[in-house]
Each structure stands twice: as C-alpha cells, then as structure tokens.
C-alpha cells in the first residue's frame, strides 16, 4: 500500500510551514481530531493514520484528495502532480498494513476536516511535544543498578555488590536508542555505537547535545556501566538539546529504526528498540509500537515519571510494549516519581544511575528513563545467550526471570506488578 502514495517508505516529502510562526498552540474548536483535549500542541502539525482495512481504491482516492488540497496553495509556487511532493505532507509512516499514515501540516481547519472525513482515514491527531523521563542526579556509589539486576535481594548502602552476566554479553544484538542521540565516540562504547538518524534535522547526524541519550545508551551497553557489554548501539535522535521533540518526529525516528532493522540490516530477531520517552497518551504512538512489535522487534519503554497510572502515558500504555517502572536498588522501594498501574510489566533500577556522558565522562540520572535500558539490555542478553527472537518470548522470559528471584517491589501501588528485572544470575 505504501507505494501508492510514495516511492519509498523513508522518503521525506517536504518540510513546509503553511502558517505564520508563533501561532498560539491551542486546540481549535470543532476540529475533527481524535484527541481534542491534547496539551502541548505543535502548531499546525497533525498525525494521520489510514484504516488498516482500507482498500487499494480508497487509498488511490485519498491520494487524489491530498493532491487536490495541495492545489489550493498556489502562493507556494510548487507544482502538484502524481509524481511531485505535496506541500501538505511531511513523512509517510508504514509498518506493514498495521500502521500506515503520514505527518501533515495544514493551513486551516477546513483542510484538516476534509482529510479527517476521508473514508480511508482512521483518525487525525494533534501532534504534541514530548520529552524524556530522566533527571540529572548525584550519587557517591556507581554501579548499584547493574548489581541489582543480577542479585535476588536489594543492595545494602555499604556494598554495591557484583554484576554477574553471561559472557556473550549481548554480542550480535543491536539496540536502537530512540532519544536525544548518542556521543558515539565515548571510549566506553569501544567503537560499538554508531550514528543512525536525526529526525529533527532529517539527516544522519545523531550526536547527543543534551546528555540523556548517551546516559541511556551507556546503561544498555557501555563497557563499564552497561548491561549488555558487547551489544551494538544505534543512535536515533528525536529530542533536541533541551530534551524536547514531537510525536511526529518520534514516529519518524521509529519508522527509520524499523526500516533499518528490517530492510537495510536484515536483523529482525537480533535487534531491540529502547524508548525512554514520555507524554500524554497518543493513539498513533501506541499503534506504531504495536506495529513494530508485530513485525518481530521488541520495544522496551519507560513507564513515565509522573507518579500516576501509566495507562495515561505513551508509549508506556502501548499494549505490546515492555513497560518498565523504577525502583531504588538499595531497598527495592518504588521510586517516588515512577508511574504505576496494570500496564507496567516489570521494575528495574532507576534512582541515581551512573552511566556515560555526552561530554566524555560520566553522568548520573534518575528516572524510569534509566530503568528501561536495564531491561533493554537484559533483552539483548537473552537474544544473544538463549537465542530468543520472538518479542513475546523475550517478554515472557524477562517476566519469568524476575519471578524466579522471589524479590518484590516495596511501597508499591495496588494493582501494579511487583516484579523486579533480573538477568538470570541471581
């Protein structure tokens, strides 16, 4: 179906703002969007998803609708034809038929209403701003998080313990870190980290100018601070220097990662995606996570740092995501900031976690952002040491290893799992 509306899945069609900058990003009354109560709205930016059962003819007709709308903007001086880029479109998203849509920038409400009325369209959403789920902190002790996931009991304040792990250490597995980028030249990555994609500038320069992404990547797979010390790491930059991004940009980064895994690297069954990102629940994000999972790629996400039910957060609330809450490794208490609820699958250390920094040294963060990469690292270990490839099998194995320790989250919230992630070397 994707070939109907573009020649390649990853093609960037056009980045044009069709209205003045500085517009008040407030909901437009009576606009036909599926999330009318959204906050932190990106001005004039929308995410459109086609119906999964849309026919070939319906998609062809939809293409004509888009071209007709593009023709309404002659001041842009851009030709409109079956082979030209429409000024109304940015990127198409396509993870098989499960998620097929595009990022739209429209000049007025009438344009959005017309697209929303297209019978091939399932929904139109406001695009909203997104940030990560980690905060810089300070801690004297360094490797408590690593030690905790290879032991059955919480750590004492005086003894961080040892980190025990299988010697395969994630070798042959690649973890895609969708975040603020990675400082790939950090010596602790030992040359195993590489640039992937930058959805903000639409290029391959995914250098981290914030620090969050490098910290997360280090927890996954750096030599000193990492869970899977031989895994490869790929930077997918979707957050800027101030740690903000948009859902449209994040979905674009997810599309790139999925394409890289499935088509360029052909590494389905040997790749994991980590997303330490949080925002209010957005159906398009959850649908994208589920589509990637269904294509054979496990997606590990943070629960969020709002100390509320994670079912209201994306991508934490995605049905197929491995959603990770945070504990303090010293006492196994639920971190006071960690989200909770039935969508949380497992907890992992997320308080005062030391890891790599984008300036070449170390950084210490607290957040479910730091808990998630512990579990992404465990997923890489299991794929490498046990040969697991199916996302559901990996999630089930993470669950069973956590259950085997007998440990449980303390000071937790009712109706939330008490499982604490473990790599099997308890």
UniProtKB/TrEMBL annotation:
The active site is at 179 (charge relay system), 212 (charge relay system), 369 (charge relay system). Belongs to the peptidase S8 family. SUPFAM superfamilies: Subtilisin-like. GO terms for molecular function: serine-type endopeptidase activity. Residues 1-25 form the signal peptide. Residues 170-402 form the Peptidase S8/S53 domain. Keywords: Hydrolase, Protease, Serine protease, Signal. GO terms for biological process: proteolysis. It comes from the Eukaryota. This is Peptidase S8/S53 domain-containing protein. InterPro entries: PCSK9_ProteinaseK-like, Peptidase_S8/S53_dom, Peptidase_S8/S53_dom_sf, Peptidase_S8_Asp-AS, Peptidase_S8_His-AS, Peptidase_S8_Ser-AS, Peptidase_S8_subtilisin-like, Peptidase_S8_subtilisin-rel.
């Amino acid at each position: 179906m994707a070939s109907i509306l573009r020649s390649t899945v990853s093609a960037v069609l056009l980045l044009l703002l069709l209205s003045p900058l500085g517009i008040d990003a407030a909901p437009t009354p009576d606009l036909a969007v599926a999330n009318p109560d959204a906050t932190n709205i990106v001005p004039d930016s929308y995410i459109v998803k086609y119906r999964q059962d849309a026919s070939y003819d319906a998609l062809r007709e939809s293409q004509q609708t888009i071209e007709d709308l593009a023709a309404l903007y002659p001041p842009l001086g851009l030709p409109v034809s079956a082979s030209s880029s429409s000024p109304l479109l940015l990127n198409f998203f396509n993870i098989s038929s499960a998620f097929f849509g595009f990022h739209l920038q429209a000049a007025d409400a009438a344009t959005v209403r017309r697209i929303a009325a297209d019978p091939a369209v399932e929904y139109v959403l406001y695009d909203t701003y997104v940030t990560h789920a980690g905060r810089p902190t300070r801690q004297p002790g360094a490797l408590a998080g690593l030690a905790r996931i290879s032991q059955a009991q919480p750590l004492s304040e005086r003894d961080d313990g040892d980190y025990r792990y299988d010697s395969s250490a994630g070798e042959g597995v690649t973890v895609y870190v969708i975040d603020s980028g990675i400082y790939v030249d950090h010596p602790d990555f030992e040359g195993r980290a590489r640039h992937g994609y930058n959805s903000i500038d639409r290029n391959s320069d995914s250098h981290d100018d914030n620090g969050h992404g490098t910290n997360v990547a280090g927890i996954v797979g750096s030599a000193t601070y990492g869970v899977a010390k031989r895994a490869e790491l790929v930077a997918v930059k979707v957050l800027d220097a101030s740690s903000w991004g948009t859902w449209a940009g994040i979905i674009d980064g997810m599309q790139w990662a999925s394409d890289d895994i499935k088509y360029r690297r052909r590494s389905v069954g040997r790749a994991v995606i980590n997303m330490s990102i949080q925002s209010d629940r957005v159906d398009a994000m959850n649908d994208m996570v589920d589509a990637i999972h269904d294509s054979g790629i496990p997606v590990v996400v943070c629960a969020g740092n709002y100390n509320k039910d994670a079912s209201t957060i994306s991508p934490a609330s995605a049905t197929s995501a491995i959603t990770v809450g945070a504990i303090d490794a010293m006492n196994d208490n639920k971190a006071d900031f960690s989200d909770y609820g039935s969508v949380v699958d497992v907890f992992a250390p997320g308080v005062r976690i030391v890891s790599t920094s984008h300036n070449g040294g170390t950084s210490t963060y607290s957040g479910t952002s730091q808990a998630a990469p512990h579990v992404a690292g465990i997923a890489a270990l299991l794929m490498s040491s046990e040969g697991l490839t199916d996302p559901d099998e990996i999630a089930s194995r993470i669950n069973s290893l956590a259950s085997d320790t007998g440990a449980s989250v303390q000071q937790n919230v009712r109706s939330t799992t008490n499982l604490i992630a473990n790599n099997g070397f308890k």
